Amino acid sequence: MKVDRRSFFAGAAALGATAPLGGLADEAQGASSAIRSHGFFARRKYDHVVVGGGFAGVAAALASARAGAKTCLLERTNVLGGLSTQGHIIVFMPLCDGYGRQVTFGIPEELLRLPMKYSAAKPNGAWVDKKGTKKELSDKRYELVFDPGPMMLGLERALVDAGVDIFYDCSAENVVREGTRIAELIARCGAQRLLLAANAFTDATGSAALAQLCGEATVGGRTGNIPCGWYYVVDGERHIHLRCGAGKTLRKLDPAAARDYAGDDPDERSRHAIASRRAILLDIEEENKRRAALGQEPLHVFSIPTYPTLLKLARVAGEGASGPVVGIFSDWRRKGPVYPLRFGQLLVPGVSNLLAAGRCIACADEMWDVVRCLPACCVSGQAAGTAAALLPRGGSFASLDEETLRKRLVASGVRLDAELLKPDPEWKGGGEMREEGIF
Ligand SMILES: Cc1cc2nc3c(=O)[nH]c(=O)nc-3n(C[C@H](O)[C@H](O)[C@H](O)COP(=O)(O)OP(=O)(O)OC[C@H]3O[C@@H](n4cnc5c(N)ncnc54)[C@H](O)[C@@H]3O)c2cc1C
Q1: Is any atom of ligand 1 closer than 6 Å to the C-beta of 204?
Q2: How far is residue 32 from each of residues 37, 167, 232, 326, measured CA to CA in Å?
Q3: Looking at the domain assignment, is residue 126 inside a domain?
């Protein structure tokens, strides 16, 4: 549902907002003081509001804050990293093409290397220090297996250091439109509400929730969502291991429960969560039978995903195949292909000051499986944040100066050279497809 300014204020009065909306200080005073009075509407003004603290949202907020825009990020849970950190998705897919050449640079690489500050995680093979022959660098892909805790800590530190105001436990629940623009965003933080005015907004919700609140077209994903679970177990000596494949066990033992879930219906979301957890219980039971037969100690569940492990939610409709190239990423499934991210993929056609970032951007069906992974989510996040910082007051993203945007991206460490988009001469097309360990 969207509301215009007049009906929103009428609604606020009906709800009994006890503070005059204009009476609270407009200038941001930091997250802690913003939400202090029970039942009050607190009002803040920013240049850029990012909704969603997954990898895309973090990349967007970092990019705009570092470009000098006053930025805040709203996250409805209490930590950063979204589906990845809270869903135990702990493989940061590759930044290279598989032929020893890095193709993704900038904030995606910074975030891939972030857990190295707080843990012993290291990128694969020669990619640790990025030194090595072509052969050495093509032996392994430039990716990282990380633990969720250090990543969450690192993401938060990065935002705080960049001067981003983080609002945790804060859910965007409506927008106030003025023509084609979002004038203000209404967010619920516990019992309080925040009214956030901004020049630019980024929808990094993973489900195009902001675009949907604006009444814009999205496409959902009935296929691809089956129960899954990456969960941690401890052995008798309290050593922790990650286990994948719970969904496979459920499909084998109870095919009826292993069906597709749309992810856009409250009942289905809960059924998916319950089926995924049942999958974990069945998987550990099977594994412990196997271990008992070998005379081994049983394993015990240590930690399960706390975030819906739905691959596919809604995304902005269309393919967005137009506009300048604002990012480059490779294919995690096979070596060889390199793809451009086009600015048109970030646009939300009916809203002039809103961009999408992450797994909810517009893309062709066949590209979705690549676009949804962490490198591409960070690429689109950095592009959205950089564009948000450049948007003139009252301007429209559709008419943003493309060359200036590309120059700003390059100046902040992104590489956009056309050469990078040419596949390695050794790649003759096709190639073996790697399987994700999800099910
Ligand atoms: C089983 C599985 C395995 C996967 N394996 C891999 C893998 O190995 N490697 C890889 O790179 N990728 C993998 N992926 C994909 C990848 O994890 C996600 O697509 C990616 O993390 C999405 O990032 P995002 O920032 O776009 O969205 P999300 O991570 O979904 O973040 C969105 C954030 O927005 C917040 N939010 C939503 N609505 C609101 C609101 N109204 N107000 C405030 N906040 C809101 C959410 O709480 C969340 O934190 C996998 C996915 C699944 C399901």
Answers
A1: yes
A2: 11, 9, 34, 35
A3: yes
